[in-house]
Amino acid sequence: xxxxxxxxxxxxxxxxxxxxxxxxxxxxxxxxxxxxxxxxxxxxxxxxxxxxxxxxxxxxxxxxx
Length: 65
Fold this sequence. Notes:
The protein has about 60 residues and is of the alpha+beta class. It has one domain: CATH 3.30.1390.20. About 35% of the residues lie in helices and about 25% in strands. A three-stranded antiparallel β-sheet has the order 2-1-3, with no helix packed on it.
């Protein structure tokens, strides 16, 4: 059953460290999040899939809920 209170929550994701020097899968995750350049902020819906992607590259990001 979908969680109605979580459907409209958003998360702002900002790239604060460069993925240069990290593994290919971490670079690909940053790109999949829609982050192309430093200090770019993207708004995403808060989903479990998004949380997993963020967890993988949390050391490169700043998160605001």
